Amino acid sequence: IQALQISENKIIKTKMLSRACFRQFSASIRRMSSTNIVETNIDSGTGFATVTLSQPPVNSLDKNLLTAITDRFKKLSDDSSVTGAILTSKFDGKVFSAGLNIVDMFQKSDDHLGEFWGMVQEWYLTIQGFPKPLVSAINGHAPTGGCAMALMSDYRVMVEGKTIGLNETLLGIVAPFFFADLMIAAVGRRHAEFALNNGYLYTSDEALKIGLVDEVVNLDQVVPTALKILTKMTKTPQPAYQVCKNFLRKETMDTLRNDRAGDIAHFVGFVQQPNVQKAIGGYLQALKQRKK
Ligand SMILES: CCCCC/C=C\CCC/C=C/CC(=O)SCCNC(=O)CCNC(=O)[C@H](O)C(C)(C)COP(=O)(O)OP(=O)(O)OC[C@H]1O[C@@H](n2cnc3c(N)ncnc32)[C@H](O)[C@@H]1OP(=O)(O)O
């Protein structure tokens, strides 16, 4: 009887403990109401938000995903309980992001292109202007706009064996000035000129050598490594961090802010050229046929 009572007490204690643990766990991870293409979890212990891009198949940045990411980062900026963020992809081991959605640039009206580019501008201004520490956990390929998005963060941890770069020229298009400036800021003018002129796509190890990414690790270490560095970054006095980040990034952002309409007109005029449309169409077809 005594033995039974002891084991019953143990069961009750275990049940109480697991309920307490569950309460603690559910209190510490808050899921933000979010569209299912941008999943966001906030750890209420650390204040770290994990933003996971989840638009199949390759997180290509169409109007929906651009808007969802922009809205999410605006909310995280305004949420005083959030101390920093990690940006990653649901398609780990495959793709971080395939960059801007090429379909949105092919055989579209001027109005469609203008609206699309306005969203690209807003996405850039919001992530680049995100005032808190932001670490990219690049867990798959990151060509073109995917690379630009990673460059907007303050630190990049990349999985081994994938590729990253601003390789627009290979498609017959040219990276906009605000993408080019991201690359120059990370790797310096010499490497940036080589990378952009030749549309060079770097392996993770090559990217590490030129400073395009800060660490290369195996897949299961990408997010934990990102969290470790985020912990360090959030220990810097944050008013100073924000002021510093803002003044280092302000010039290029202001150039864009001061002439958004001109930049849109420039994009539309460039993309609508027959030879550019031909190149985009050919590239789209090649992408589709790669599988066959
Ligand atoms: C003088 C100054 C001028 C200024 C000009 C101003 C502006 C112009 C600049 C515009 C800037 C553009 C920046 C960009 O971001 S352009 C985007 C280019 N993106 C790419 O080149 C990436 C292409 N994709 C890939 O390389 C691969 O998909 C991958 C990311 C490596 C993943 O490979 P994998 O896992 O094998 O997947 P699939 O290739 O089979 O793709 C699945 C599916 O998705 C379609 N797709 C892939 N990428 C895109 C994309 N970016 N947009 C739209 N669709 C994409 C692909 O076609 C497959 O579709 P299906 O399943 O239907 O075949």
From TrEMBL:
Gene Ontology terms describing biological process:
fatty acid beta-oxidation
Name the Gene3D superfamilies on file: 2-enoyl-CoA Hydratase, Chain A, domain 1, 6.10.250.170
Catalyzed reactions: (3Z)-octenoyl-CoA = (2E)-octenoyl-CoA; (3Z)-hexenoyl-CoA = (2E)-hexenoyl-CoA; (3Z)-dodecenoyl-CoA = (2E)-dodecenoyl-CoA; (3Z)-decenoyl-CoA = (2E)-decenoyl-CoA
| Keyword terms of this UniProt record | Acetylation, Fatty acid metabolism, Isomerase, Lipid metabolism, Mitochondrion, Transit peptide
Give the matching InterPro entries: ClpP/crotonase-like_dom_sf (IPR029045), Enoyl-CoA_hydra/iso (IPR001753)
- GO CC annotations? mitochondrial matrix; mitochondrion
Superkingdom classification of source:
Eukaryota
Q: Does the keyword ATP-binding apply?
A: no
Pathway, according to UniProt? Lipid metabolism; fatty acid beta-oxidation
Compartment annotation: Mitochondrion matrix
Keyword Lipid metabolism appears in the UniProt entry? yes
Q: Pfam families, from UniProt?
A: ECH_1
Quaternary structure per UniProt?
A: Homotrimer.
Q: What does this protein do?
A: Key enzyme of fatty acid beta-oxidation. Able to isomerize both 3-cis (3Z) and 3-trans (3E) double bonds into the 2-trans (2E) form in a range of enoyl-CoA species, with a preference for (3Z)-enoyl-CoAs over (3E)-enoyl-CoAs. The catalytic efficiency of this enzyme is not affected by the fatty acyl chain length.
Q: What name appears for this protein in its UniProt entry?
A: Enoyl-CoA delta isomerase 1, mitochondrial
